C-alpha cells in the first residue's frame, strides 16, 4: 500500500529546547506509527559521560573531539521507542547518561564543532532510508533538513522547569525547582548561541507550544501533520491507511 510505503520511508524531526517534552512525544509518535526512534541527545550525553569518566577537560576541544571520534566506534543505540538503550563498549549506560553531572556538562561538549560533525555523520547513517522519528536540537536544520515532517516543540521556561523538576524528583530525590529553571535557562543560552548548529526552528517547521497541552494533545497534532503529509485526511496509524496497529497509546502524562 502506497501510504504504508511512504510512512516506512518517512523521517519525522522533532526539535526543541531542554524540558519541552521531546523524548516523551517522539517516543509516543514512533510507537503509534510503528517507526524507529532516535534520541540524538543521548549520543552527545554518551560522549559527555566518556569525557567525564576519563578526566578529559571540557575546555580542551581537541581532546573532546578525539573522545567523540572514539565514542562513535563503541556506541550502540537501540532504536526501539519502548526500550531506547544506550551502550558504550557493550556496557549499558542508559541511566548514567541522564545523571546530573552529564546534564551540567553536555551543552559544553555539544558546542564543540567537531563533536557535532562526528555525531551528525553517525546520525545520518542511523536515519538511513527513513522510517524513523528523530529528536534533537538541529534535526530539521542540519541533520536531516529534508525531513517530511518538522516539529519545533517548545514551552514556557517555567513550565519546562516544573516538568524537569518532577522527573528529577522521581528519579533522584528532592531538588529545587528554581535551580532547575536556572539550569534550563543556562542551557538554552548555550544551545542558542553556539557557532555550530545553534538551536533554532527550521524555516519550514511547525512550532508547537506545549505550555498548556498534554502529551495526547501534542501527539494528535503531530499525527494530523503526518496524515496531511501523506495526503490523507485520516489517521496515519489506522489499519485502513497504513496497515499498522493503532491500539498502542502513550500514558496521559505531561511532556
UniProtKB/TrEMBL annotation:
Q: Which SUPFAM superfamilies match?
A: P-loop containing nucleoside triphosphate hydrolases
Where is region (Disordered) located?
Answer: 229-255
Task: Cite the EC number.
Answer: 2.7.4.25
The record's section on InterPro entries has:
Cytidylate_kin, Cytidylate_kinase_dom, P-loop_NTPase
Q: Which GO terms describe its cellular component?
A: cytosol
PANTHER family assigned: CYTIDYLATE KINASE, CYTIDYLATE KINASE/PANTOATE-BETA-ALANINE LIGASE
- To which species is this protein native? Acidothermus cellulolyticus (strain ATCC 43068 / DSM 8971 / 11B)
Identify which top EC class this enzyme belongs to: transferase
| NCBIfam families according to UniProt | cmk
- Which Gene3D superfamilies does the entry link to? P-loop containing nucleotide triphosphate hydrolases
Protein family according to the UniProt entry: Belongs to the cytidylate kinase family. Type 1 subfamily.
List, alphabetically, the CDD domains matched: CMPK (cd02020)
User: What HAMAP family does the entry give?
Assistant: Cytidyl_kinase_type1
Q: What is its main location?
A: cytoplasm
Annotated binding of ATP, by residue: 16-24
Q: Name one GO molecular function term.
A: CMP kinase activity
Cellular localisation: Cytoplasm
- Tell me what gene encodes this: cmk
**Protein name as annotated:** Cytidylate kinase
Amino acid at each position: 500500500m502506497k501510504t504504508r510505503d511512504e510512512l516506512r520511508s518517512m523521517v519525522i524531526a522533532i526539535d526543541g529546547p531542554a524540558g519541552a517534552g521531546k523524548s516523551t512525544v517522539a517516543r509516543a509518535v514512533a510507537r503509534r506509527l510503528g517507526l524507529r526512534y532516535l534520541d540524538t541527545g543521548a549520543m552527545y550525553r554518551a560522549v559527555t559521560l566518556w569525557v567525564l569518566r576519563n578526566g578529559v577537560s571540557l575546555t580542551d576541544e581537541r581532546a573532546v573531539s578525539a573522545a567523540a571520534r572514539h565514542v562513535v566506534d563503541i556506541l550502540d543505540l537501540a532504536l526501539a521507542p519502548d526500550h531506547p538503550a544506550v551502550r558504550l563498549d557493550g556496557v549499558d549506560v542508559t541511566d548514567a547518561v541522564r545523571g546530573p553531572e552529564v546534564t551540567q556538562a553536555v551543552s559544553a561538549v555539544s558546542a564543540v564543532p567537531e563533536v557535532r560533525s562526528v555525531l551528525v555523520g553517525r546520525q545520518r547513517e542511523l536515519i538511513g532510508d527513513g522510517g524513523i522519528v528523530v529528536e534533537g536540537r538541529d534535526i530539521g536544520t542540519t541533520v536531516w533538513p529534508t525531513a517530511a515532517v518538522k516539529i519545533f516543540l517548545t514551552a514556557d521556561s517555567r513550565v519546562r522547569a516544573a516538568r524537569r523538576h518532577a522527573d528529577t524528583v522521581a528519579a533522584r530525590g528532592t531538588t529545587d525547582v528554581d535551580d532547575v529553571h536556572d539550569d534550563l535557562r543556562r542551557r538554552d543560552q548555550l544551545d542558542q548561541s553556539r557557532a555550530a548548529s545553534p538551536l533554532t526552528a527550521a524555516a519550514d517547521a511547525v512550532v508547537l507550544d506545549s505550555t498548556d497541552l498534554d502529551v495526547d494533545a501534542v501527539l494528535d497534532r503531530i499525527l494530523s501533520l503526518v496524515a496531511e503529509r501523506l495526503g490523507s485526511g485520516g489517521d496515519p496509524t489506522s489499519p485502513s491507511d497504513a496497515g499498522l496497529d493503532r491500539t498502542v497509546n502513550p500514558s496521559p502524562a505531561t511532556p
